[in-house]
Structure formats: structure tokens, C-alpha cells
Amino acid sequence: MAVTLFDKTFALYIGAETIQERVKEMAAAMNAGLRGEDVVFIGILNGAFVFVSDLLRHLDFNAPVSFVKLSSYKGLASSGKVISLIGVGENLKGKTVVVLEDIVDSGKTISAILEQISVFKPFQVRIATLLLKPDVYNGTVEIDYVGFRIPNRFVVGYGLDYDGLGRNLKDLYVLDE
Ligand code: IMP
Ligand code: MG
Predict the structure, then answer these.
(1) Is the minimum distance from the CB of 129 to ligand 1 under 6 angstroms?
(2) pLDDT tens, residue by residue, 72-114
(3) Does any domain span residue 1?
(4) E strand or H helix at 41, and its extent?
(5) Residue 94 Cα, ligand 1 centroid: separation in angstroms?
(6) pLDDT value for 74
(7) Cβ distance 105 to 160 under 8 Å?
(8) Taking a C-beta distance cutoff of 8 angstroms, is the pair 47, 67 a contact?
């Protein structure tokens, strides 16, 4: 099955059931590893909203969730500069902050958000991403929770978009090249 968004065709890549199972496993790892911590979740808009909503419903402890909005991608490639559109509104002092990202590519978005969060002097910061492109990840920090490691291909669906479209797809699709 293929989908077309604007001028591009995408092929089915990771099915909805596989994604749901993996998200459940990530939540289980957090249930085990973060219990007893004073946790605040920070989702990164727009792409992470689907992942965040599925993940949080599998957690068995109470914690607030809030969102920041950053933007770096235009079409198929990162513009290289990250713009902050909605900043951190929560007081994160002394908290275990868990950043929730849809995909970590170059790592620029993650380093921008870590910089914003560090101002609040949290106790510690953990990073969770549904997808990681290890071949292009250029960051210095370790990603604590990774759903799937994928090659350097452009993907859409499950929150991820191509120029604004494709976020509603239940499965993940990869650009046909
Ligand atoms: P980074 O700052 O280069 O790590 O890029 C991270 C952001 O770029 C993610 O939050 C996504 O919004 C976007 N992004 C990176 N790779 C893809 C992709 O394959 N499809 C859709 N968006 C992507
Ligand atoms: Mg994003």
C-alpha cells in the first residue's frame, strides 16, 4: 500500500500494530525506570503529539505533561536552524524531565530543547524518541528511550509530516526513492 502527499509517493514501512507494541514496551520501561521520580513530560510539537498521547495512556504513574514547539524542517530537509515557537512554561526545577520526540535526526532540535530546559535547573533530563536515525545523529547526549532505529530515509505518518500532511496516518511510511 502506498500513499501520495503532494508530489511524493511513500511506501508502507512500519505497521500500526508494530508501532503500538513498541510504544507499550517503551511505557513499560518508563513504568519500571521512573517510578518514584518527580517526573514532568515535555512533548515536542508538532510531530510528537500522536506518540505522546499513545505513550502516556500506558503509564501507570501520575505526571504532568506539557508541550514545546520547535521547528527546523522545511519539506524533506532540516533547515539547520531551530526556531522556538512555544517555549517551556512549566517550572522544571528539581524535576526529572522526560523529553518526548517523534524522531531524532541531526539532533539539533534535541540540543535546542535541552538548552531551554537546563535554565530551569532540573534534577535530571531523560530523552525518549519513537524514531532515531543513528547514521545522521550528531548530538552528544545519549537518547535514553528509542522506539526504532531507522536508516537515513524520510518517513511520514504517526504524527510525522511532509509539509504538513501525513500526520494522521496510523502506520509509518517511507519515501520511495
Ligand atoms: P533534528 O533537529 O535534525 O534532529 O530533526 C528533528 C525534527 O525534524 C523532528 O522533530 C521532525 O519534526 C523532523 N524530522 C526529521 N526527520 C524526519 C522525517 O524523516 N520525517 C518527518 N520529519 C522529520
Ligand atoms: Mg518534530
Answers:
(1) no
(2) 666 677 666 777 766 787 789 999 999 999 999 999 999 989 9
(3) no
(4) strand 39-45
(5) 29
(6) 61
(7) no
(8) no
Atom of ligand 1 nearest to the CA of 139: 4
Which cell numbers hold the place of 34? 521512573
For the chain, the straight-line distance linking the first and the last C-alpha, in angstroms and rounded, comes to 16
How much distance in Å is there from the Cα of 160 to the middle of ligand 2?
7
Catalytic (active-site) positions: 105
Range of the domain at 43: 16-152
Q: Which atom of ligand 1 is nearest to the CA of 105?
A: 4
What CATH number does the domain containing 83 carry?
3.40.50.2020
Instruction: Look at the block and give the residue holding cell 517510578.
Output: 35
Size (the chain), residues = 177
Segment 20-39 shows an average pLDDT of 97
Q: Rounded CA gap, 106 and 108, in Å?
A: 6
Q: Which residue, by CA, sits nearest to atom 10 of ligand 1? A: 103
Number of structural domains found in the chain = 1
Beta carbon of 5 within 6 Å of any ligand 1 atom: no
Distance 140 CA to ligand 1 centre (A): 17
pTM: 0.94
Query: Looking at the domain assignment, is residue 162 inside a domain?
Result: no
| Ligand 1 atom, smallest distance to 162 CA | 21
